[in-house]
Write a structure and sequence with these properties.
four-stranded mixed sheet; 90 residues; alpha+beta; 33% helix; binds zinc ion
């Protein structure tokens, strides 16, 4: 039996996208400390936009689909530990 056990903890998932960093900085490091709601609306041409809304102060942060995907991954990985992130309905 070799000693190749991997004892180090997995690195916490760090967001790379600037919009995601802004959202998490607000929801996780500010006073609001909460799970942001996802707001989605569509223009008449079918262009849809998404934003994260802070339920505490009402601030909105525009995000795109890839930002949203990263926010979901981050929340799944870290949301329970940090008690912040986003919440969404499947
Ligand atoms: Zn806020």
């Amino acid at each position: 039996m070799d000693e190749q056990f991997d004892y180090h903890l997995p690195p916490s998932f760090s967001p790379h996208r600037p919009a995601v960093q802004r959202v998490l900085a607000h929801l996780c490091e500010g006073e609001c400390q909460s799970f942001g709601d996802i707001l989605e609306w569509c223009e008449t041409r079918g262009d849809c936009s998404q934003a994260v809304v802070c339920p505490t102060c009402g601030n909105q942060f525009l995000i795109d689909e890839e930002d949203f995907a990263e926010l979901q991954r981050w929340t799944i990985a870290n949301g329970g530990v940090y008690a912040c992130g986003v919440r969404w309905m499947d």
